[in-house]
Amino acid sequence: MPGTFKCMLSLSLSLPPAERTGSLGVCGWIIVIISGTFAVLLFPITIWFCLKIVQEYERAVIFRLGRITDRKAKGPGIFFVLPCTDSFVKVDLRTISFDIPPQEILTKDSVTVSVDGVVYFRVSDPIASVANVTNADFSTRLLAQTTLRNVLGTKNLSEVLSDREGIAHSMQSNLDEATDNWGIKVERVEIKDVKLPVQLQRAMAAEAEAAREARAKVIAAEGEMNASRALKEASLVIAESPSALQLRYLQTLTTIAGEKNSTIIFPLPMDVMSHFMRK
User: What keywords are annotated for this sequence in UniProt (predicted)?
Assistant: First the structure.
């Protein structure tokens, strides 16, 4: 084993500077070789420190003397680390959801509303999520709150109430673009609830009630107009055909008799009454 160590050390020192040092440097490679040698010599003991396992939904970012190795995350499955020189950080790749706390927002038309939402995101680049930001999860939460304020600040109250899908899509685009350098992929944003001041709710309720009453009056007027036109057309038909009036009389008698009344009225044509009046 000492011979192997001397051979590896001499090979490392015989390489050109660019190929020999790499990203660790000569001293770094010497420390790594020494650590690997001790790990081999104390194999039955060091196996418990060198052997690591990550789940299917996890990746491990390995740091060797403070530098990320291979520029690629390890996993899933089994991987080895060198004691004393290597450390690693596990990254969860599953989709994470969190609620945006209610935010007091002043809309474009100077109305204060309280809006909350929910964000779904996942880690797309484990190395960037570890190396480019201190806490990717916490940073994404804070950015979602400020993005919600910025987006809703450019909308009117009517747009906030009616265009939730457009607001959510705009928020998703802004968040996804801002978190791209952090290795975060924002998959979905939803607006949960929009709370209005009590005075504004009463004003909107009164406005809606007045609008409904106005529509009801218009509909009733249109119905009366249509009924008048129908009666006019019916009267013209009856005037053209006297037998139609007799049929209408019989139909009215049938309706009255069907209601089990004790009194039955027999309507007489006006021409019969006029005959007696002339006499």
Answer: Membrane, Transmembrane, Transmembrane helix
89 bridge partner residues: 61
| Phi, psi (deg, nearest 5) at residue 22 | 60, -130
State the chain's mean pLDDT as an integer: 78
Three-class DSSP category at 56: coil
pLDDT tens-digit profile of 58-98? Answer: 999 988 887 888 778 888 888 878 887 788 899 999 999 99
Q: Which of 34, 85, 78 is nearest to 63 (CA)?
A: 85
Maximal C-alpha separation, the chain: 150
> Do both 39 and 129 map to the same domain?
no
Alpha carbon 250 to chain centroid distance? 66
- Do both 190 and 205 map to the same domain? no
State if pTM tops 0.85: no
Percentage of the chain exceeding pLDDT 90:
21
pLDDT at 265: 60
Distance, CA of 246 to CA of 267 (rounded, Å): 10
The distance from CA 271 to its chain's CA centroid, rounded to whole angstroms, is 77
Judgement on whether residues 148 and 234 belong to the same structural domain of the protein: no
